[in-house]
């Protein structure tokens, strides 16, 4: 008999909550783990208590799993609108004008959102842009708006740093603008604000073996200089594949509490929304076959907690409504087109080394 998990009960329950999904390839027994050129994927030797050694393959890291969990919130890989179930959930969009010199209030082109950016609300695309509605009043950049709402400018100085009494404003402001950032964590290095992940996940294969194979690229018209190169491809097989999801209830409960007759930080219903959103993401990731990369299409055959089969019962729409968000949940941050698409520096790297959630699945 399965146990049903409800967000309100999970929030008050033990911390952490650990969910384990057992997966298998949708076809055959081979799958493609995360890997990098010249390195391939990682298989390490894990010692067990009985003295044996088990070969474990890292299929996806915590950063990649966060990317996957955020992708289920969007309508498609190239469609940045949220799925219908998440209507009313706040998030942030970086937008630009459709033509150079046109007004930002005219047709807006969405560039990225806080669901596609690894730094989420702390992305430069948002911090250095201008929130359109706020800009009507003050003309402040988004980072200046955040500093003001956080209340983190120290007296007699310009340095922004949150005193202990202001952290409740930090949690509340982030929740009101982008609650997803509290699910997966956020970092503002300049302001010494670091909120760890409330939901952490990783994907591993146990009893793993490497499958080395090759491919060839054909240049039938002879229009390239590469010729007909042969390249190596490494897949894996395994006795079992498991995705592990760890939810830190203690952290979520620390986002707010009652102080006397006053509520500080997030209310119980708002904390419950964080839990509901995290559980909803897990549910969406495992309820149907999911393609982690081109050669890694897996389906869930069991979802358990503490060795017991579970069912996730999440009414995400009710949780969003009960959280008390504004009628306009989307914050548009504007960049002029001529500034956003200016010519880049040829010497700059294409890799954002500071991005905690940069895609790390490597080559396919």
Could you give the topology of this structure?
Elements: E1 3-5, H1 7-12, E2 17-25, E3 43-47, E4 53-60, H2 62-71, E5 74-76, E6 79-82, E7 91-97, E8 108-113, H3 124-127, E9 130-131, H4 132-137, H5 142-150, H6 167-177, H7 180-184, E10 186-188, E11 193-195, E12 199-206, E13 209-216, E14 230-237, E15 240-247, H8 249-253, E16 256-259, E17 262-265, H9 268-286, E18 290-293, E19 296-305, E20 308-312, H10 316-322, E21 330-335, H11 337-340
Parallel strand pairs: 1-20, 7-21
Antiparallel strand pairs: 2-15, 2-19, 3-4, 4-12, 5-6, 7-8, 9-21, 10-11, 12-15, 13-14, 16-17, 18-19, 19-20
Helix pairs in contact: 9-10
Report on the architecture of this protein.
By secondary structure, this protein is α+β, with helices and mostly antiparallel strands. It has one domain. Helix content is 24%, strand content 32%. It is built from 11 helices and 21 strands. It has helices at 7-12, 62-71, 124-127, 132-137, 142-150, 167-177, 180-184, 249-253, 268-286, 316-322, 337-340; strands at residues 3-5, 17-25, 43-47, 53-60, 74-76, 79-82, 91-97, 108-113, 130-131, 186-188, 193-195, 199-206, 209-216, 230-237, 240-247, 256-259, 262-265, 290-293, 296-305, 308-312, 330-335. Strands 1, 2, 3, 4, 12, 15, 18, 19 and 20 form a 9-stranded mixed beta sheet that branches. Helix 9 runs antiparallel to helix 10 (316-322). The longest helix has 19 residues, at 268-286. It starts with a strand and ends in a 24-residue tail after the last helix. Residues 348-364 have low confidence and may be disordered.
């Amino acid at each position: 008999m399965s146990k049903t998990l409800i967000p309100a009960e999970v929030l008050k329950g033990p911390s952490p909550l650990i969910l384990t999904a057992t997966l298998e390839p949708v076809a055959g027994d081979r799958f493609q783990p995360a890997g990098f050129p010249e390195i391939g994927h990682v298989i390490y030797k894990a010692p067990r208590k009985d003295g044996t050694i088990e070969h474990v393959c890292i299929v996806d890291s915590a950063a990649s799993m966060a990317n996957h969990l955020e992708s289920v919130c969007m309508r498609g890989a190239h469609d940045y609108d949220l799925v219908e179930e998440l209507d009313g959930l706040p998030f942030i969009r970086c937008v630009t004008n459709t033509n150079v010199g046109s007004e930002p209030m005219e047709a807006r082109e969405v560039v990225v959102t806080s669901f596609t950016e690894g730094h989420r609300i702390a992305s430069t695309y948002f911090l250095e842009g201008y929130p359109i509605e706020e800009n009507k009043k003050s003309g402040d950049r988004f980072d200046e708006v955040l500093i003001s709402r956080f209340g983190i400018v120290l007296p007699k100085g310009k340095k922004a740093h949150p005193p202990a009494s202001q952290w409740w404003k930090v949690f509340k402001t982030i929740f009101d603008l982008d609650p997803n950032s509290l699910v997966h964590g956020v970092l503002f290095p300049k302001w010494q604000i670091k909120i760890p992940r409330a939901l952490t996940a990783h994907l591993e294969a146990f009893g793993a073996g490497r499958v080395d194979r090759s491919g060839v690229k054909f240049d039938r018209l002879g229009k390239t200089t590469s010729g007909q190169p042969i390249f190596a491809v490494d897949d894996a097989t395994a006795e079992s594949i498991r995705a592990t999801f760890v939810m830190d209830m203690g952290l979520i409960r620390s986002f707010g509490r009652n102080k006397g007759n006053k509520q500080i930080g997030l209310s119980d219903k708002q904390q419950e929304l964080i839990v509901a959103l995290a559980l909803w993401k897990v549910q969406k990731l495992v309820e149907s076959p999911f393609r982690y990369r081109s050669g890694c299409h897996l389906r869930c055959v069991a979802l358990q907690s503490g060795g017991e089969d579970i069912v996730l019962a999440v009414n995400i729409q009710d949780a969003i409504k009960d959280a008390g968000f504004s009628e306009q949940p989307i914050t548009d941050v504007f960049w002029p087109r001529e500034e956003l698409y200016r010519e880049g520096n040829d010497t700059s790297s294409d890799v954002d080394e500071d991005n905690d959630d940069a895609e790390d699945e490597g080559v396919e």
